[in-house]
Amino acid sequence: MTGPRRPRAAASASLMLLAALSLSACTAADAGTEPTSGAAVAPQTVTVLAAASLTDVFTEIADDFEAAHPGVKVSLSFAGSSTLAEQVLEGAPADVLATANGATMAQVADQIGTDPQIFATNTLTIAVPSGDPAGIGGLADLTRDDVRLVVCAPQVPCGAATQKVADAEGVTLSPVSEESNVTDVLGKVASGEADAGIVYVTDLARADGVEQVALDGADAAVNLYPITSLPGGDGRPTSLADAFVQAVLSDAGQAVLARAGFGAP
Amino acid sequence: MLPRRLVPLAAIGALLVLIPLIALASRVDWASFWPLVTSEASLASLLLSLRTATIAAALCLLLGVPLGVALHRARFRGASFARAVVLAPLVLPPVVGGLALLYAFGRRGLLGGTLEAFGVEIAFTTAAVVMAQTFVALPFMVLAVESALSSRTGRHEAIAATLGARPWTVFRRVTLPALGPALATGTVLAFARAVGEFGATLTFAGSLQGVTRTAPLEIYLAREADPGAAVALGVVLVVVAIVVVGATFRRAAAG
Question: Where is the signal peptide (chain A) (predicted)?
Answer without folding.
Answer: 1-28
